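Hi R.,

As promised, here are both runs. First protein below:
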Amino acid sequence: MYHQRPVMISDRFQPVLLALFVGCLASLAAPLFGQQNPQFSQYLQNPFVVNPGMTGVESYLELTAAYRNQWTGFEGAPKTATFSFNTPTYLLSSKSSVREDDTHQGVGAFVYTDDTGPIKRGGFYGSYAYHLKVSDQWLVSLGTFIGATQFKYDASEAVLVQNPTDILIQTVSSIDLDMSLGVYLYSDYLFAGIAANHILNNEIPYEVTNNTLTTTGRFNRNFNLLLGSRIPLNDLWEIVPSTFLKAVSNAPIQWDINSKLVYDEKFWGGLSYRNQDAIVVMAGLNLGNNFLLSYSYDWSLSDFSGQQSGTHEIVLGYRFQFGNQKCGCPQYSM
């Protein structure tokens, strides 16, 4: 018994829709120079929060919580937390399987907080993605986040070296509508995604540029590109190489190169290098095919390394799987 047919788009218009969607991302990405959004080392363990095109990509409903304590021991260092869920929509119905053509939809939501001394950011987003089967081997997903983002500057936690009594610097808080777009292309062994975040380019009261606080700023459009592969070595072992590039205006481009070695989909370990920033050691396990736990440690390579004791990041996940339901996408694609 098949899942009720989702709203379909004519095959004649699917390539046009994809071209327009990618073109929109490309036009938004005109000046790409660096990274502004919260940093994550374990982007493959929590990929949904970096690209809405990954909403509902797997065959289960997944809850994920992550916490990152950056530059431990340094006062005012960034602390980031996220909580999310996402699922293919057919799991929310009483049907037992997805359509034969594997086209399906996904929904989800996530909330995050990112505190850096007196500057606090956060947001809540709902997500939707439409997954199209474009060949026997490939699917492409078009997704969006829509929600609200908050910026808060707490003047009581600030130490202004140049103008410690500047009356223009006050505690402020603003909430704005926010939106992201994402495209994700995937098969059994290869995956690639591009996402544009903060595309509304909202104004914020203050911004830190070159360690200087200014009274004008924006949530700059932020872009990321993910490329990766799953390469089986034998029946039990596989290697997962990937790279993740992040860019935003007025800052250097940042990229990671990463490799994980996975044993029987139960245990994995990995190494990552972030350009001019850190070497990352990671490990994780899958308990009972439902509960996932992973940890990473960033060893800083910058001149700042002597003033802090590294970065810790932990990710917890739980997968709800229902009977014999099967996803239109390849299992374990990330």
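And here is the second one, sequence first, then its structure tokens:
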Amino acid sequence: MAEVQHKLEIFRGLLKFKSNQTKIWAVLVVLSIVTIIEVALGIVKPKFLLELFLGMKIINWIFILLTFAKAYYITWDFMHMRDEKSGLRNSVVLPLVILVLFLVALLLIEADYIFQVKYNGFLSWDF
């Protein structure tokens, strides 16, 4: 059986490596840097990032985006999605995107309901 050769590059060919081991170390460094940025932002919490944007603090949006970036990168590199055909990639990614959007919609609907109940005050029902 022929040996499968994985691509030894990251960032769409911007960095190329001689072996899988050096590539794995580079991926570890990239993911560590993103995690360090997240932790540093969580500790420092700059004032300008605590303003609201689309109903949520900007720092929370940054955390969500960095988390999605890490998840995408882990899937792309460690699960070798880049080496697969587009049909398989789509069959993995599209259901997850649909489920995440559905979950976000449900959470927003529930959060709005709870906000309205607390804002308008609780009214007891007569049974």
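A quick note on the second one: The first strand starts at residue 9 and ends at 10. Let me know what you think.

Best,
J.
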